[in-house]
Specification:
Strand order of the largest sheet: 2-9-8-4-5-7
Number of strands: 9
Strand content: 25-35%
Distance between the termini: 11 Å
Shape: globular
Helix content: under 10%
CATH topology: Phosphatidylethanolamine-binding Protein
Order of helices and strands: HEEEEEEEEHE
Largest sheet: 6 strands, mixed
Structural class: mainly beta
């Protein structure tokens, strides 16, 4: 989608970013200790996301695991956002809800039809993993894989979006954790 934007426009918009203050983990209703350990076998925290997980590669979802969930966790919510997008709000790449017993998902496991998680709507209106696709020339984009332990099982809509997630998690977040991956599209594809 964004790969067709000229790099000169991406560079011109370099200072325009949604901002980390608008991420779900910074919402007032999501305040909780950051004690969940979030990891990926594909990249380290603060490291580059491999090409195969992006729109420039195969676009498959990366493997992800989480640990140190607090006692009383009933559901796990995973939301991946890009706060560097030149837009008013961070771009949603994934919303997924897991039973508390699930602590990991394999590479490619977050696509539509997954039996492991209830998948919500990403910013393009579809469900499942939306591959990283920053505008060329816009600089590095940070993708925050946010994991929330919820103290109750929420009866989600069929395909929840960010607004429903924000409303539903108020006073339900026991703990949270985040893994940050970075991807920069240097040249147009």
């Amino acid at each position: 989608m964004f790969q067709k934007i000229p790099a000169s426009l991406g560079k011109a918009l370099g200072g325009v970013r949604a901002g980390v203050d608008k991420l779900l983990l910074n919402e007032e209703g999501a305040q909780a200790p950051e004690t969940i350990q979030v990891e990926s076998a594909a990249f380290r925290d603060g490291g580059a996301i491999p090409l195969r997980f992006t729109a420039d590669g195969e676009g498959t979802s990366p493997p992800l695991s989480w640990s140190n969930l607090p006692e009383g966790t009933k559901q796990v919510l995973v939301v991946v956002e890009d706060p560097d997008i030149p837009a008013p709000q961070p771009f949603i790449h994934l919303i997924a809800v897991f039973d508390a017993a699930v602590t990991s998902v394999d590479e490619g496991g977050l696509k539509e039809g997954s039996s492991l998680a209830r998948l919500g709507k990403h910013s393009m209106g579809g469900v499942g993993w939306l591959p990283n696709d920053p505008p060329p020339g816009h600089g590095p984009h940070h993708y925050l894989f946010q994991v929330f332990a919820l103290n109750r099982a929420i009866d989600w809509d069929d395909k929840p979006g960010k607004d429903e997630v924000k409303t539903a998690i108020v006073k339900t977040v026991l703990a949270k954790g985040v893994l940050t991956g970075i991807y920069e599209r240097v040249k147009p594809s």
